[in-house]
């Protein structure tokens, strides 16, 4: 099951982008409710490895389940 970046919690640090082995994490357009850049996970490409959760310094920014209700996508 793919992971989900919680759009309104993400702070745009982007450590997850470089760590992802399948390049499924992409920058979202504009800013989120916190006024920061944000990223999203392509559910169709995610291999559920969990590396993104391990490297993300923002608590609760990524959840280990597919939750399209928490993640905006362009």
UniProtKB/TrEMBL annotation:
SUPFAM superfamilies: 4Fe-4S ferredoxins. It holds the Pfam family Fer4_7. Residues 1-30, 37-67 form the 4Fe-4S ferredoxin-type domain. Keywords: 4Fe-4S, Electron transport, Iron, Iron-sulfur, Metal-binding, Transport. GO terms for molecular function: 4 iron, 4 sulfur cluster binding; electron transfer activity; metal ion binding. Its cofactor is [4Fe-4S] cluster. Gene3D superfamilies: 3.30.70.20. Ferredoxins are iron-sulfur proteins that transfer electrons in a wide variety of metabolic reactions. This is Ferredoxin.
């Amino acid at each position: 099951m793919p992971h989900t970046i919680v759009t309104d919690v993400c702070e745009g640090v982007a450590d997850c982008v470089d760590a992802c082995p399948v390049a499924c994490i992409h920058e979202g357009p504009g800013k989120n409710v916190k006024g920061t850049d944000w990223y999203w996970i392509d559910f169709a490409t995610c291999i559920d490895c969990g590396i993104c959760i391990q490297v993300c310094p923002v608590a609760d920014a990524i959840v280990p389940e597919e939750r399209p209700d928490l993640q905006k996508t362009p």
